[in-house]
Amino acid sequence: MIHASLTELRAALDAKRISSVELATLFLDRIEQQNPALNAFITVNRDGALAAARAADARIAAGNAGPLTGIPLAHKDVFCTEGVLTTCGSKMLSNFVSPYDAHVVALLKAAGAVNLGKTNMDEFAMGSSNENSHYGPVKNPWDATRIPGGSSGGSAAAVAARLAPIATGTDTGGSVRQPAGHTGITGIKPTYGVVSRYGMIAYASSLDQGGAFGASAADCAQLLTAMAGFDARDSTSLERPAEDYAREIAAPANDKPLAGLRIGLPREFFAEGMAEDVRTAVDAALDEYRKLGATTVEVSLPNAKLAIPAYYVIAPAEASSNLSRFDGVRYGHRAAEYRDLAEMYAKSRAEGFGAEVKRRILVGTYVLSHGYYDAYYLQAQKLRRLIAQDFQAAFAQCDVIAGPTSPTTAWAIGEKADDPVQMYLSDIYTIAVNLAGLPGLSHPCGFGGGNLPVGLQLIGDYFSEARLLGTAHQYQQATDWHLRRPA
Amino acid sequence: MSRSDWEVVIGLEVHAQLNTASKIFSGASTAFGAEPNVQACAVDIALPGVLPVLNRGAVERAIRFGLAIGAHVASKSVFARKNYFYPDLPKGYQISQFELPVVQGGEITIRIGEGDKAYEKTVQLTRAHLEEDAGKSLHEDFHGMSGIDLNRAGTPLLEIVSEPDMRSSAEAVAYARALHALVRWIDICDGNMQEGSFRCDANVSVRRPGGPLGTRREIKNLNSFRFLQQAIDYEVQWQIGTIEDGGKIQQATVLFDPDTGETRMMRSKEDAHDYRYFPDPDLLPLVVSKEWIEEVRRGMPELPEAMKGRFINEYGLSAYDATTLTASKEVANFFEDTVQSAGSAQAKPCANWVMGDLAARLNREEKDISASAVSSVQLGGLVGRIADGTISNNIGKKVFEALWNGEGTSADAVIESQGLRQTNDAGAIEAMIDEVLAANQKSVEEFRAGKEKAFNALVGQVMKASKGKANPAQVNELLKRKLEG
Q1: Which of B53, B281, B283 sits opposite A232 (nearest CB)?
Q2: Which chain B residue is nearest to residue A233, measuring alpha carbons?
Q3: Whole-number Å distance between alpha carbons of B388 and B383
């Protein structure tokens, strides 16, 4: 059951081969055993999970089960969960028990999914390695000396180590796709606006988007279907009819199920910078796609190289403002002693935030300052439009874009901890997707040196999530990378 | 140099609280006076993860204002974040419109002074933009700590910014009053200044006539017209005194102390915040369609200027009367209802009653016209009875008093119950005249000797004898005939 797909779990629950309580217990016990080594969870929600599982069992018995009723999952600790500690990986919120559920959490609760707990993450979703957590780094299940990626590293590690069958995440610059790639699982970030941000603690509002982790594209499709949907409480939520993101998940019709699919390969993604072991795995995956009937075509994203500088202006700018509410006045960490208001703010925030968060607040404050705004923020917004235009031009020539998720496999814990710019550059392939607001997916496509997973990123045009998932699914029908598990 | 060598330049920023039931970005109530923090929801207290959703009612009110002042209502405007830390600002930023406000331009005509010295002036507006209010910090009663009440946090405000077009405190007050009347007229703000629903900031500078603009100081948070006038007058004197003593004005924000009547510096330009404005990524640009503007336009009440013109044309009122009657919507409506009840031919007497006896009575009792003890229908009935000769104007005043004191439900009822009907019976009047003439031979002789005044005295005696009920015109005519006959 630990390694079962959602479809198999659904069948087992419906056939009463296992109860939801038994299933939840199985995973909770596994978390208890393995989490001390992995540090994937900040909070384990045993009592809440068992109560939800009991309710799910009643629902199943009554014949009212939906696709996710009784299915255990984990939430990234960026999502507010009523009555459950919600830390965002920060000391600042280490005492914050949310009085309300995020829209995503409420939807999954209503679907009858069982919340096993809250997963570790880079503080306020700022990071690519999960080393920036107040709760300590998360270990990569494939090699405990390696990072799992970030910022949703806890969710990715939990799914990779089968501490949860599926998990939620958020992706501002690659925070779902990159850890999925580094841990050998599948992760999708939908089009900006598909998943409500209500109750998702904001890092960079115009880039933040909820996403899904699973072992396979099929599992991700089910989770995304349950998470997505219009929410009037989020003004950037898109008012569109509900979608079944699994609608293109189908058995191969023949040995060329992807016939007619044009895969664009951005010249810039295949230039220097990509490690050899990653290149080898990606090339092999592209061969596999061609075998399945797809054709590949070179495309160009000339401004993609400007994505990182643009991102590191826009995201910190928004973050510097978004994080102002953490002032020690109403909730969260407040310094024990202070002489006046200014010192209360200064000490509470100095104590409550970690180094990377402070760095981004400072950068963001700087770029928004009087006299610098035009040179930084407005320029970055112009780049953002150019990057989005590049993608549109590319999609005139292809249906999906493919390339590596990350330039290297997971690096060693501590390796880039003192060099933030090296860390930022590791997101070179994922960040442009957020700036354009496009959907992106990462699926495992082999292993590099040290038996570390390599991820292949698929990027689609707006609202092409079902196609991305269907494409990855065909690949996963022909390969077994997604079935490999860490020892 | 003397005082008259200086020109005063004033611009006003007015914060009008919009009278929506809920806040501008959340569903919490905006009602005034609740227990602290009971009207602050998750969005208002800025819990992690919450997001703003724009209240269309606030936008609709801004559109209404834009239409009322002939401004451009922007098809696209943008909400920005104004970043600063303060405990009563829960998010650490205020959502406001910065570069692209919803209302751009517009003008308001004001009338300054009384009588011969009265003049009109048109004040240009720069803009009006939507924003949220902050909460309140309470520094008393907390044993050295501060209390925070977030009930007001997120209350919708329309910040209305004028050009520096005013040249005296009187003009500034006239503008503020006109604006106050207008926002109430179009029903977007209750105008309650005590509760802070209408607050003025005044930018004041002085210069030599025709010279470049002087450095301004901004007087914050004036919540009465009297304070506005006092603060500006003090500030102008202070600035002139400072310059004439060889000093320079430094740009600053000042507060007015009503107890001392003085302004004092709150912060200088050097202390000014860098608010790091940028478009709020949680809110899409505000799009106002032509259709929406037209829909709002269709729901607009007749505006004071239009109503004034109609009063002049339709009722033949003087410009002065029309202006006075349209000073507030309540007075204008009361007047029109009175006319409707009395008949449109009686518009002028109706205007006289509303501006005269009724206004005096309301004034004496410090009442608003909405609290008038005499209704428009009652007053209209009264005017009608004077017009048709049932009672004289003087008896009318008596009937008015009786109605005010609740001695009858209508003018007719009072006239009947108190027997005030005018006597038009020529025989009865003649009899009274004969009696009066017999008893006042001296006056008769004086009249015959050419003293016109004696005639009036005799009329008065006859009216007195009739207890005011004799038709005065008839008395005049009959008496004249008797004396000359």
Answers
A1: B53
A2: B53
A3: 9
Taking residues B32-51, report their average pLDDT: 94
pLDDT for B445: 85
> Boundaries of CATH 1.10.10.410 in chain B?
426-484
So where are chain A's domains? 6-256+439-483
CA atoms within 13 A on the CB side of A228: 28
Which of A195, A230, A321 to substitute to test the interface with B, most B CBs within 10 Å? A321
Could you read off the pLDDT of B166-205 as tens digits, one per residue?
999 999 999 999 999 999 999 999 999 999 999 999 999 9
Q: Looking at the predicted structure, is the pLDDT value of residue B1 above 60?
A: no
User: Strand (E) positions, A272-348?
Assistant: 295-299
Whether the CB-CB separation of B470 and B429 falls below 8 Å is answered with yes
CB contact set of A140 (below 8 Å; sequence gap of 6+): A146, A147, A148, A149, A157, A160, A182, A183, A410, A452
Give chain B positions within 8 Å (CB) of A99.
42, 47
Please count the other Cβ atoms lying within 10 Å of the Cβ belonging to residue A330: 17
Q: What fold does the segment set A6-256+439-483 form as a domain?
A: Amidase signature (AS) enzymes (3.90.1300)
**The two structure tokens encoding residue B81:** 């974040």
Can you give the pLDDT at residue B4?
Answer: 63
Q: Which of A102, A324, A341 sits opposite B87 (nearest CB)?
A: A341
CA distance A460 to chain B (A): 24
Residue A259 has what pLDDT? 97
**pLDDT for the residue B2:** 53
Residue A14 one-letter amino acid: D
B316-375: pLDDT as tens digits: 999 889 988 998 889 999 999 999 999 989 999 999 999 999 999 999 999 989 999 999
Interchain contact B47–A (C-beta under 8 A): yes
Chain A residues with CB under 8 Å of B45 CB are: 330
Contacts of A406 (CB under 8 A, 6+ apart): A149, A174, A178, A181, A182, A278, A426, A427, A429, A430, A455
**Residue length, chain B?**
485
Q: Could you give the residue numbers annotated as active site of A?
A: 76, 151, 175
Spatial CA neighbour of A80 closest among A209, A199, A188, A176: A199
What ipTM is given for this predicted complex? 0.96
In 3D, which of B11, B297, B22, B286 has the Cα closest to residue B130?
A: B286
Q: Does domain B426-484 have CATH number 1.10.10.410?
A: yes
Cα A246–chain centre separation: 18
A329 and B93 within 8 Å at the Cβ level: the answer is no
